Amino acid sequence: MNPDYLIAILASTAGAATPLVLASTGELVAERSGVLNLGLEGIMLVGAVAGFAVTLHGGSPLLGLLAAMAAGMAMALVFAVLVLTLQTNQVATGLALTLFGLGLSAFLGRDLVGQTVAPLPHLSIPLLSNLPFVGPLLFRFDALVYVSLALVALVGWVLARTRLGLAIRAVGEAPHSAHAIGMPVLKLRYATVLFGGALAGLGGAYLSLALTPMWVEGMTAGRGWIALAQVVFATWKPRGLLLGAYLFGGVTVLQFHGQGLGLAIPSEFLSMLPYLATIVVLVVICRNPQTILLNKPMSLGQNFKAD
């Protein structure tokens, strides 16, 4: 295979994986606190349209990214109020949020279809960017690719090494016991849900500002659900998120390059491959219940009400 072609495939994999890394990292933090948010798909779509609209009319990608995070947090706040304060069912509320996000994003983006913006600029690191093979493979991405990797490392460190991480894990494992020793269970859960919403909105904005710099209705194409599946794939450990996201990203990129590689496979089957790969991996992992139960927060999906 031509080295330049191989570099293009590997570099494209990082771009395809980045929105999944962002969304699943935020969801992992929320789930470690015991909150299951199935509304990621809707949040990502609202973040995508908000980021695109602000960038298009304001001319600043940074403002667009901030707007996407704010929109994601607003959607997550609606979810948090319903499940944490009003004690609604987390699964049903998350599904409703996804449907709401689908409709809201289509409504907000009805006049944006067909318009484009300049993609997020790639960083050029002196000397390193010009290295043969390694330069374009590691040092010519946009800033969010590096931010997503840093966030995974930061979240892993916070959850494992800090008092805040211990508190989040305690709330996710035994919220009543955590409340009994004075931990602010609801405040921590609100914070983690808003953090997850911000990253999901940012992941959506990456789709409309970098991966495909335009607005297309339903452009997440199920990535919110894939991000949810990746948390299970990672068994609620941050380092596993990268493997899952880059696996999905690699299969996604291969479907686009399949015909160019001479694969005599129907395009419809190639389009199925990323989702089929995710299902297969989840089935393999879930065959051993102990693997899942070892790290799954005990109170995941369960509402908490202070006595």
Helices and strands in order:
Blueprint lengths: L2 H30 L7 H19 L2 H25 L4 H19 L25 H5 L4 H19 L1 H11 L1 H6 L4 H27 L11 H11 L4 H20 L9 H20 L2 H7 L12
Organism: Massilia forsythiae
Membrane topology: Multi-pass membrane protein
Main location: membrane
Mean pLDDT: 88
Report strand %.
under 5%
Helix content: over 70%
Which CATH architecture? Orthogonal Bundle
CATH class bucket: Mainly Alpha
- Decide which structural class fits the backbone: mainly alpha
Quick one: biggest sheet?
A: none
Count of DSSP E strands? Answer: 0
As a whole number of angstroms, the C-alpha radius of gyration is: 20 Å
Number of helices: 13
**Shape verdict:** globular
* Uncertain regions spanning at least 5 consecutive residues: none
- Beginning-to-end CA distance, first to last residue: 64 Å
CATH T-level topology = ABC transporter involved in vitamin B12 uptake, BtuC
**What is the N-to-C order of secondary-structure elements (H for helix, E for strand)?**
HHHHHHHHHHHHH
Organism: Massilia forsythiae
Membrane topology: Multi-pass membrane protein
Pfam family, one: BPD_transp_2
Keywords: Cell membrane, Membrane, Transmembrane, Transmembrane helix
